[in-house]
Write a sequence for this structure.
């Protein structure tokens, strides 16, 4: 299973103590564990790979993209637009959420993928 989220962005600035972030919620209704791989694509730099998460059977996992690091160590850069490809060895349900705290009135965007 492969899904895409073409409009991702993690703002460079936070307003107050609540940090801007993005998250991908993965719901695995299968009885077996699912392996979920994430690849990040950018406008002006090479893609970032090596992000892998195991989601146990009949469980949900919330992947905070601001806390995610790949096998080589680098984290996702702030202030850079990107697209996300999510691949799973099993059929899973996905929800993407962006929390933007760059202004006093917080903004949240979410979508089922």
């Amino acid at each position: 299973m492969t899904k895409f989220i073409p409009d991702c962005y993690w703002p460079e600035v936070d307003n107050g103590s609540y940090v801007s972030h993005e998250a991908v919620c993965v719901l695995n209704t299968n009885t077996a564990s699912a392996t979920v791989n994430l690849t990040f694509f950018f406008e002006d730099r090479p893609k970032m790979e090596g992000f892998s998460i195991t989601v146990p059977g009949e469980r949900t996992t919330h992947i905070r993209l601001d806390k995610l690091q790949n096998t080589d160590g680098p984290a996702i850069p702030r202030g850079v637009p990107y697209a996300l490809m999510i691949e799973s060895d099993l059929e899973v349900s996905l929800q993407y959420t962006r929390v933007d705290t760059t202004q006093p009135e917080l903004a949240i965007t979410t979508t089922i993928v």
Strands lie at 2-8, 21-28, 34-42, 48-55, 59-64, 82-88, 93-100, 107-112.
